[in-house]
Amino acid sequence: MPLSSSQILFFSTLMLGTLLSISSSSWFGAWMGLELNLLSFIPLISSKNNQYSSEAALKYFLIQALGSSIIIMSASFMMSSSELATTLFTVALLLKAGAAPFHFWFPSVMEGLQWNQVIILMTIQKIAPLSLLSYLLYSNTLYIVPAAIITSALVGAIGGINQTFLRKIMAYSSINHMAWMMSAILISETNWLLYFSFYCLISSSVAILFNYQDVFHISHIVNHTPHSSHMKILTFTSLLSLGGLPPFTGFIPKWIIIQEMVSSHMFITLAILLASALLTLFYYLRVAMTALTISSPKTKWSTKSTISSYMTPSMIYMNIFGLLAPSLFTIIL
Amino acid sequence: MLPLRWSHVPGGSGLVRALRPSGSVVSRIPPHLRQEDGNDTRQKRFLHVHSSRNIIFGNTKTFLKENLWPCSRVNRSIATTPVKQLFWEKDPKGGYSSKEKRNRKELIQEGLKELRIELSKWKGEVIEKFEDDPIIVRPECLIGDMDKVWILKNEEQLKNWVATSDKDHGEGYSSCSLSLSPAGHGLFSGQINTQVPKDGRVKKAGYCNMKSIRPRLSFKREVYLDWSLYNHLELRVRGDGRTYLLNISTAGYFDLHWNDMYSYPLYTRGGPHWQVTKIPFSKFFLSSKGRLQDKQCPIPLQRVVSLGISAGDRVNAPFRLEIDYIGVYSDPDHTEEFAYEMYKLPKYIVGN
C-alpha cells in the first residue's frame, strides 16, 4: 500500500517510541516513549478532512495526554510513596490501553478512524502500556488488575451485542481480548507475548479483510464479485478465529491461557473470561454468518473492482494454520 | 488539521468594524470613545448596550482586546457582521438561549417527577439491547426503498419540531407557525418580513425556521440520528414556489463543531400537486454560523443531530410549506461521495 514519506516517518517514530518505552530503565524513559508514541500516532490519524475523524483524533489525544500526565506524576513520586504511585500508574496505563473501566473513549475513537489506523490502534498502541503493566505487577498488591480483567471481559462482551458497525465491534472485541491479555500478564510474560502476537495477527487479518472489501457496516459485507467466494470463506474463518473457536488459530492462545490459569487456580476469573468469550463469539458469528450466507446483488458496496492485493490472501490464510497446533507446541515451548 | 470555523459575534454592532486599528479607520472612532472618561455615564452605557454577551466593559481597551485580538486588517464589505477570529465558543446556543432562571428547588422537584418515566424508558432500552436483533440486511424487495424519519400527520408528531423566527430574539418582524394543514399534514407557514429593526446591531432580517428536536435516550442523553446507510434525503412537500433551505446540523462533541450545518436549497414548485424531492447527501455543503466554510467535506451521516427547514429568501411575503413526510433513501447506484471539488493535492506531492 503506498505510504507517503510523512507516514513512513511517523510510523518509524511510533515503533521507536514503543521500543523506547518498553526497554527503558526508568519510568521517565517509559513516559518519554509513550509520549513519542502518542505524538507520532496523532499525525497518522488526522489526515482525513472529515469532521468526525478530526473529532476522534482530538478525543484520542486528550485521553492519552491525560494518561501520560498521570504517568509522569506517579513516576515522580515512585520513590517516596510507592503504593499510591503504582496504583495511579496502573490506572493510567489501563486508561492508555483502553481497558475497562476506562474504556469509554475507545469505541468512539475507533469509529472515526480508517481501517489502517484501526489496525495500528488495536495492535501497536497496546504494546507499550501492557508491557509497562507487566513490569509493574511485581509490586502491586491491590485488586485493580483483576477487577480490570473482569470488567473488561464483561464490557467487551456485553457492549458489542447489539452493534452493527464493524469498527465498534472490533473495539469491543479488542477490549475483551485485553482482558485475556491482562490475565496472561498475571501468569507470565511469555504467555502474554504469545497471546499478544496471535491477537495482533488475527485482528489485523480481520481488519485487512474488512479494509479490502471497504466495509463499515454488517450490511456492507454482502457482495457478488468474482472473488466473493474467497472473501466469504476468509471472512468467516477469520472472524471465528478471532472468537477463539478450536480448529482455527485463535484458539491456541486461549487454550494456553486457560491451561495456565487452571494451574494457577484463578478459577473465578477464568469462568468470567470464558463466559465473555462465548458472548463475543455470538456477535462475531452474527457478522460471519451474514458474510457467508447472505448475498444481495443490489447494494452499492458490491461494485469494488479492485485488483486483489498480494498481501491479503497470504495474511489471512494463516488463520487456518491452527490445525498445526501440536507442532507449534514443540517449537515454542 | 482541523477545519477552521470562521464565526461572527451574534448581533455585533457596526461599531466594532469601525474600531479596527487600520490607519484609515482609527479616525472613524467616535470621539467620545477615544478619550476614556470614567465619569461619562453615557460612554459606559453605549459600550454596554452594544455588547451582545452582556459583558460589562470598563473601557475601550478591554473592548478592543475582547473583540479584536488577533485583529484583522481586512475590512470585509460583503459580510455585514464582524469576524471574530477565535475558535472558542462559550455557549452551544451561541447566546440565543432563553434567559429565564429557574429556582433550583423547582428544578429538582420536576426532575424527580420525570425520574419514573426515564427509568421505564431505560428499561425499554436495555430490553431492546439484549432481546432485539439489528436489521442487518434489508430484504431484496425493499432495497432502494425509503425510511420515513418524520411523518407529520398529527399534533403529537408536530411536537418533535420547533418553529422559530427572527422575532423571537428581537431581530426582526417575521412570524411563523407549525400547525396541521386542512389536508392533515404538517404546515409550516408564516410571513417573512425583511424590515430591519432599528437597534443598530442587526443588519439583515427576515427568516423563519423549523427544526427537529434532537433525539434523546433515557435520562435525556443526547444521541445522534444515524443515516449512514442511506444516501438521499427525501421529502414530500407542497410548497408555494419559494426556495427554502434544508439545514442538517451535525453538532459534534467539541465546540469547534457545535455550529456545523450542512445545507442545500429546497426548490418548491407551488401549485396543487405534491412534489417528492430527493436530494443526495453528497450535495450538502458545510457552513458554520451562516458562513460557508473554505474547507468543505462530506456530511458525517452517523452524527446527524437535527434537520431544519428555513425560509429566508429576502422576499417580503407570506410563505406556506406543507410537508407530508421527510425520509431517507438509499440509492444503490449513486456513487458520488462529494459534489464539490476541493482542488487540493495530498500533502506529500512535491511542487504544489
From TrEMBL, chain A:
GO terms for cellular component: mitochondrial inner membrane. It is an enzyme of class 7 (translocase). GO terms for molecular function: NADH dehydrogenase (ubiquinone) activity. GO terms for biological process: mitochondrial electron transport, NADH to ubiquinone. Keywords: Electron transport, Membrane, Mitochondrion, Mitochondrion inner membrane, NAD, Respiratory chain, Translocase, Transmembrane, Transmembrane helix, Transport, Ubiquinone. The chain crosses the membrane at residues 7-22, 57-78, 84-106, 143-162, 193-212, 233-252, 264-286, 307-332. The keyword NADP does not apply. This is NADH-ubiquinone oxidoreductase chain 2.
TrEMBL record, chain B:
Belongs to the CIA30 family. Residues 153-323 form the NADH:ubiquinone oxidoreductase intermediate-associated protein domain. Its main location: mitochondrion. Pfam families: CIA30 (PF08547). The lineage of its organism: Eukaryota, Metazoa, Ecdysozoa, Arthropoda, Crustacea. Keywords: Chaperone, Mitochondrion. GO terms for cellular component: mitochondrion. InterPro entries: Galactose-bd-like_sf (IPR008979), NADH-UbQ_OxRdtase-assoc_prot30 (IPR013857), NDUFAF1 (IPR039131). GO terms for biological process: mitochondrial electron transport, NADH to ubiquinone; mitochondrial respiratory chain complex I assembly. This is Putative complex I intermediate-associated protein 30, mitochondrial. It is found in: Mitochondrion. GO terms for molecular function: unfolded protein binding.
